[in-house]
Inverse folding.
């Protein structure tokens, strides 16, 4: 028969075991030295196995925490890359928009000059049919000019929006960099926790 009592110390679990080999005969250090040594060795290995299993679970928990932190850092780094690409794209859009605006302004000026010339011709026309044709031509030119001016306005608004996006993204990048620094510090601390858990397990296994 085996009798056991499980208790607890300040930072340990205490297992007290009594083994009855025959009625009212128990394994003891003084009376059954060889059996006592075998029981002691068995209980030692039993306790060591339990303690090692707990240490393994602790190590796995700490390793998972480390993996999660590293995933968080990777996510921050990926977001950083996306934001940097976004800024590059917006800057390219601004350059393209400015180039288009320059071309449209030149087109608008040319149309304005042409409209002025056509109006001068209109003043000197006598034939009513010719006047109507010229007025229609001038009207088409003015529509084309207004279309160019409207496109310039849209492109200028697009530039304003792009600059606003760049400003906001730069602020987000600053926040991201701070978060990355904090996460790296967390990872360093967690690596220490993993190393401590590994050392604890190895100490138990090598005991």
């Amino acid at each position: 028969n085996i009798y056991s009592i499980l208790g607890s110390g300040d930072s340990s679990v205490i297992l007290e075991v009594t083994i009855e080999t025959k009625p009212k005969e128990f394994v003891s250090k003084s009376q059954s030295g060889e059996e006592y040594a075998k029981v002691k060795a068995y209980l030692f290995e039993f306790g060591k196995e339990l303690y090692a299993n707990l240490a393994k679970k602790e190590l796995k928990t700490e390793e998972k925490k480390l993996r999660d932190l590293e995933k968080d850092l990777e996510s921050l780094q990926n977001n950083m890359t996306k934001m940097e690409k976004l800024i590059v794209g917006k800057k390219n859009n601004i350059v393209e928009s400015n180039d288009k605006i320059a071309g449209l302004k030149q087109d608008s000026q040319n149309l304005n000059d042409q409209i002025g010339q056509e109006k001068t011709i209109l003043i000197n026309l006598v034939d009513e049919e010719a006047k109507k044709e010229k007025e229609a031509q001038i009207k088409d030119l003015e529509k084309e000019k207004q279309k160019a001016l409207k496109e310039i306005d849209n492109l200028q608004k697009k530039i304003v929006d792009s600059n606003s996006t760049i400003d906001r993204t730069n602020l987000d990048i600053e926040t991201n960099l701070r978060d990355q620094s904090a996460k790296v510090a967390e990872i360093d601390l967690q690596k220490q926790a993993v190393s401590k858990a590994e050392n604890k397990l190895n100490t138990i296994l090598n005991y």
Q: What stands out?
A: The chain has a mean pLDDT of 91. Strands lie at 2-8, 13-22, 25-26. The CA atoms of residues 78 and 115 lie 54 Å apart.
